[in-house]
Amino acid sequence: MRTSMLKRTTCIIALSSLMAACATKDAVTPTPEPVDAKALETSLAQQRDTILTGIYLGSASQQASLNALNAQLISLQDEVKTLKAASAAQTHKPNVQKSQPKVDEKYQSPLGDKFLLGAIERVYVDEVKASFNTRIDTGAESSSLDSRNIVLFERDGSSWVRFDVFVDGPDKPAKTFEAKVVRFVRIKQDADDAADRRPVILAHLKIGEYEAQTELNLVNRSHLDYPLLLGRKFMQDIAVVDVGKTFIHGKKDPNKINSNK
Length: 261
Fold this sequence. Notes:
261 residues; 4 helices; 12 strands; 36% helix
């Protein structure tokens, strides 16, 4: 009986200890606060908007920079094209100034800054060091010099021409000259004929007291009366032609007249 009482007491003590432990555990463990779902959703939405705004601003800034760089690139390309065009024009086009006559200060022309030419004049061509009886033709547009054995060749990357001219008359041997080609011109003599492609050189002329420069195309004029012809391009803005007169400026060599002063 004493043993039975001891067992019962032991069970009561164990049960009391277990209940005390459970009570202590319940007292120590904190109770979690309830979560506000709406507040959490609002916070997440704000964070999302902030991130998206940052991404958008960064993309817009990069796009603006790209647009600015593209505009600069286009501007530079246009400048390069302009410079290339100017360089090509300077390379392929001769620097030919408008022919302006130089006159002796003692001579006063009744035509003001223009001088008078007859239908035929004696003209000195500095490039071949010779004078020619020259046809002044208002019906022709360009000017030409009688040349034979015309041969084109290249020198230092430019087109040149070698040609013969009868500087001492048709009964004397011709002399050979070389000159740089400033361009080529196509001239049609008759409606049924094919266009004749001729090399053009820059020449410095003297007519009496006057000096001027013009372009001369080189062609065989053996079938014509005069070895040199001056057309409208030479006379434009600098001369007036009196077709009823000839050798207004004399028949002597203009270069010898000027050299004797």
